[in-house]
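Subject: Protein record for review, amino acid sequence with backbone structure tokens
How to read it: Take the token row as a discrete description of the fold.
Enclosed: The protein record, placed directly beneath this head.
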Amino acid sequence: QVQLVESGGGLVQAGGSLRLSCAASGSIFSIGTMGWYRQAPGKQRELVATITSGGTTTYGDFVKGRFTISRDNAKNTVYLQMDSLKSEDTSVYYCNVHARITTYYADNYWGQGTQVTVSS
């Protein structure tokens, strides 16, 4: 089974920065697109950023140039650098990985979520 372990969340002051990490492990043959989503209480889960295996990135409109997604394929890890954080960025951030675990099976896998709290 694929396991995604997230880290890097926490409490930060408005205007500060955090760097989230998500490391994939388990019986993984290959990994395709990796991404970050977030969901605040009472709100729908929304896309934060994605990055393909080739390095093509997609960002949610709310990022406004503040966030940067990257990946280290050798470590099966995806990162989210968050700068100029705002209180509205407060949410649980979830890592998502599209992974192939057998010759015939691939699926999306989710991390456990990491809390990001931005105080004003």
